[in-house]
């Protein structure tokens, strides 16, 4: 069912899929850079939703600002305002659904957002799943190379055109350089499941290893040969790891 949320005048397109036999837990799922909440049954977040519903966990998925069917311009997107998006969704889940427990799941940049939101709300979040979390976006911004873009990290232009036709804002990169990703994330002391492919060419699995080093209660799963999207044979492994972790 529709689960739209308003944040600073922007409508975020969300969907709530309750479990047939709910156990009181709701999982909020967050997509990555240039992605969406999953409008095809074959994409990761949609597949996770179906698996989680089978074990009694309802899900809320949404498009970040400037993505999918949500309001906003991609050129204005930053990790900071994606955290604001996620916080607005979290508040809406609390008030509208009022679940006994809330879990956060994020892929790629959505993993960074989920990790930081959990760090801000350690008292509200039950479990955290980070799939190929793109914490290297900070290192990339500092080095002056982001998703195929090359720029002077000390003199970042206002806008940078991307190969996919989208425009990335310089402010995205300026804020990315200063994000306290791991410092904020480690404030969450609940159970964490980290999943990363060893053949990820977009985000080094060293990001997940660094997360694992900072958490007090985490498990790291490195999937041999898996890419950033955790596609192919790695998809079933990922779905099973997440389901087992949430159900445990």
From TrEMBL:
UniProt keyword Mitochondrion present: no
Record keywords: Hydrolase
InterPro entries noted in UniProt: AB_hydrolase_1, AB_hydrolase_fold, AB_hydrolase_sf, Hydrolase_4
Coiled coil (UniProt feature): none
Organism in which the protein naturally occurs: Levilactobacillus fujinensis
Domain Serine aminopeptidase S33: 41-140
Keyword Signal: no
Protein name per Swiss-Prot or TrEMBL: Alpha/beta hydrolase
GO terms for MF: hydrolase activity
């Amino acid at each position: 069912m529709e689960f739209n949320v308003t944040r600073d005048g922007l409508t975020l397109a969300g969907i709530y899929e309750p479990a047939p036999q709910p156990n009181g837990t709701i999982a909020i799922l967050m997509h990555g850079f240039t992605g969406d909440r999953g409008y095809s049954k074959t994409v990761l977040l949609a597949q996770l939703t179906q698996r989680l519903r089978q074990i009694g966990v309802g899900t809320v998925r949404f498009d970040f600002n400037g993505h999918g069917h949500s309001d906003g311009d991609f050129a204005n997107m930053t990790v900071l305002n994606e955290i604001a998006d996620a916080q607005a969704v979290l508040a809406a889940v609390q008030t509208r659904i009022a679940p006994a427990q809330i879990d956060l799941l994020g892929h790629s940049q959505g993993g960074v957002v989920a990790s930081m939101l959990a760090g801000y709300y350690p008292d509200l979040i039950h479990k955290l799943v980070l799939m190929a979390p793109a914490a290297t976006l900070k290192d990339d911004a500092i080095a002056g190379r982001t998703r195929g873009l090359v720029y002077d990290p000390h003199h970042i232009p206002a806008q940078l055109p991307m190969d996919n036709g989208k425009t990335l804002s310089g402010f995205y990169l300026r804020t990315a350089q200063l994000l306290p990703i791991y410092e904020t994330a480690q404030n969450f002391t609940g159970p964490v499941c980290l999943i990363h492919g060893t053949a990820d060419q977009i985000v080094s699995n060293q990001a997940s290893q660094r997360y694992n080093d900072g958490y007090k209660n985490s498990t790291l799963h490195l999937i041999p040969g898996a890419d950033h999207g955790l596609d192919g044979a790695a998809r079933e492994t990922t779905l099973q790891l997440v389901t087992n972790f949430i159900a445990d």
